[in-house]
Amino acid sequence: ELLKIYIVIIFFAKGTARRKKKVVHRTATADDKKLQFSLKKLGVNNISGIEEVNMFTNQGTVIHFNNPKVQASLAANTFTITGHAETKQLTEMLPSILNQLGADSLTSLRRLAEALPKQ
Fold it and tell me: Rounded to an integer, what distance in angstroms lies between the CA atom of residue 88 and that of residue 73?
């Protein structure tokens, strides 16, 4: 009990320096600059001529980028896609993405089509 009181007196007594932790606020632009610098070190190059990017998820949704900025570094096995992303359901994108679907996506599309009449 006396030890606790002694510790409180030593650390919180009048005249002792109080250490304050400096809070560093980061902005999104600072993070973007760091990311671009790291990508520059990897040696990424811009790839032009890509109009859209669709990423298919296991949940049946599509992450759709319209007119993205695509960069790649084959040596580092790194691809970056930047731009405005929209998460859409697979059924919303159906007519335009049929030629982009792989075998596993086609099976999930069949399961989705079988589930629709039941509802």
Answer: 28
Distances (CA, A) of 96 to 13, 14, 48, 111: 72, 72, 21, 19
Tens-digit pLDDT profile for residues 45-67 = 999 999 889 888 878 788 999 99
15 band by pLDDT with thresholds 50, 70 and 90: low
pTM for this one? 0.60
Alpha helix locations (H) across 1-100? 2-12, 28-42, 94-97
Residue 6 included in any domain = no
Q: Give residue 104's domain range.
A: 30-118
- What strands lie across the sheet with 52-56, from one edge to the other? 52-56, 61-66, 85-89
2 within some domain = no
What angle is formed at CA 84 by the lines to CA 88 and CA 33, rounded to 5 degrees?
140
